[in-house]
Amino acid sequence: MISRSAKITVVGLGVLGGSYIKGFYQAGYTVYGVDVDPQAVAYAEKMHWIKEGSTDASLVQDSDIVISALYPHVFESWIKENQHYFKPGTLLTDVTGIKREIISRINADLRNDVEFIACHPMAGREYRGIQYADCNLFTKANFIIVPTDQNTEAAKTTARDIAEILKFNRISELTPDQHDSMIGFLSQLTHIIAVSLMNVSDNTHLVDYTGDSFRDLTRIARINEDLWPELFELNKDNLVREIDAFINEMQNFCDLIQNDDVEEMKRLLRQSTERRACFDRK
Amino acid sequence: MISRSAKITVVGLGVLGGSYIKGFYQAGYTVYGVDVDPQAVAYAEKMHWIKEGSTDASLVQDSDIVISALYPHVFESWIKENQHYFKPGTLLTDVTGIKREIISRINADLRNDVEFIACHPMAGREYRGIQYADCNLFTKANFIIVPTDQNTEAAKTTARDIAEILKFNRISELTPDQHDSMIGFLSQLTHIIAVSLMNVSDNTHLVDYTGDSFRDLTRIARINEDLWPELFELNKDNLVREIDAFINEMQNFCDLIQNDDVEEMKRLLRQSTERRACFDRK
């Protein structure tokens, strides 16, 4: 397990970075926090979640572990500008929601004496900012480690330790390809469905007739507009393929309705019912 | 309010009809139940939800109020075959999920001395059968009365009384056109989205990576395959229009991703976030 004397620094104190420092603090670890926003730093200090915070990247000096909770393009430029502060042997990890591109871009820039191990904590909220930090998010979430053949066993162990300290429900390993394919379907396609359902027409006048089905389907239509377009762009091939397949499936069902093909509709409803049963919480 | 000495008979003791008789029973009303399945009748009797049950439609004789909780096409044929049992002045109502077609078909067949007032309790479960009856469903659900100019004020009042006795959260009136348009978007389109998402590929191997977003989005993919194709067919014009519009919206978003149009994506995500905020529970 990670030594309690290790210096851990979280860079980016938004809702997810904030939940990380809160979780480390509650587990008895000493963490440091960097953010461009002095109010986020002040909030983290006021809550005692960090020992010290700064808007200045030089705070990462001497860190054993640096965790980026930055947006993908910010992460990339931040590393270029600030990796000279890292001590040799620092382990760098992240929270980015797509993996192939971020791994290749960060590793292309990164010093040879610093190791990057990519991680994706599959947890988030519909609200932004450190004031919404909540490490209870993690207790029912997946933590996915996405190693490459350049990663050491020690780095994988540390990534797993982070997930255990933060009390993630399930820890697994995927390749970058597996990860981005899975996330394209389970997360990105579903967010675009919810967004499209809200945008297709202004149906806010229907609010009084809205039941749980519609609310459940559109909860994730409340979305961070600065983050997600980046994630979509960085997984374009998978996502476009998933959207195309989904549109074809919807069009097929529409054709069945138009052709009064009740038997084929029944077959598809039976299939969806059977498959959905596999996703019931155990 | 409906007199406690009124004879109320519910025809069709599935999950919804079962919840109706349970709700009436708990409110102190004496109800009767008819179902083709002797086990459903026996269950209702064992639970004391009905004073008397039968597989024979003649039980509706002398009823002041008859409530059909049958599938649409069964409702239609049941009325043709059994309306001769009704006493003059019986009020007939229903629970059907689409309204234009059912109103015109039932009224085309119905005796002149019986009045039909169409109602749609917007409540349901992903499970079928009287053993899943649960009148707590109603306390957060909408009850929609769908009168025509043939309906009397007395019938509308009785429909409202039924909703109040069953403790529906909100009671409203819509025209048949308004109702079917609303339901095509809020309910039918959303079910087809959930079904299509489950059917687009067999992703049950992803169950370990699935978070709340995907589960929320697909909860309603568990669907009664005998009922819903009927409801889709009976609202075909509205539903096909809604599916087409939704597919266009998805295709538009896909084009933005392919064209790297981040600014327009951001605008759409902001719009969906703002609209979704209107649907938060007060």
Question: What does it look like?
Answer:
Chain A contains ten helices and eight strands. An eight-stranded mixed β-sheet of chain A has the order 3-2-1-4-5-6-7-8, with helices on both faces. The radius of gyration of chain A is 21 Å and the shape is elongated. Chain A has two domains: 8-174, Rossmann fold; 179-277, 6-phosphogluconate dehydrogenase C-terminal fold, CATH 1.10.3660.10. With 282 residues, chain A is an alpha/beta fold. In chain A, 46% of the residues lie in helices and 12% in strands. In chain A, α3 packs parallel to α4 and α6 (176-199) crosses α9 (236-258). The two termini of chain A are 29 Å apart.
Quickly describe the structure.
2 copies of one chain form a homodimer. With 282 residues, chain A is of the alpha/beta class. Chain A folds into 2 domains: 8-174, Rossmann fold (3-Layer(aba) Sandwich); 179-277, 6-phosphogluconate dehydrogenase C-terminal fold (Orthogonal Bundle), CATH 1.10.3660.10.
Task: Compile the SSE list and pairings.
The structure is a homodimer of 282-residue chains.
Chain A: E1 8-11, H1 15-26, E2 31-34, H2 38-46, E3 52-54, E4 65-68, H3 72-82, E5 91-94, H4 100-109, E6 115-121, E7 142-146, H5 153-165, E8 170-173, H6 176-199, H7 212-218, H8 228-233, H9 236-258, H10 262-277
Parallel strand pairs in A: 1-2, 1-4, 2-3, 4-5, 5-6, 7-8
Antiparallel strand pairs in A: 6-7
Helix pairs in contact in A: 3-4, 6-9
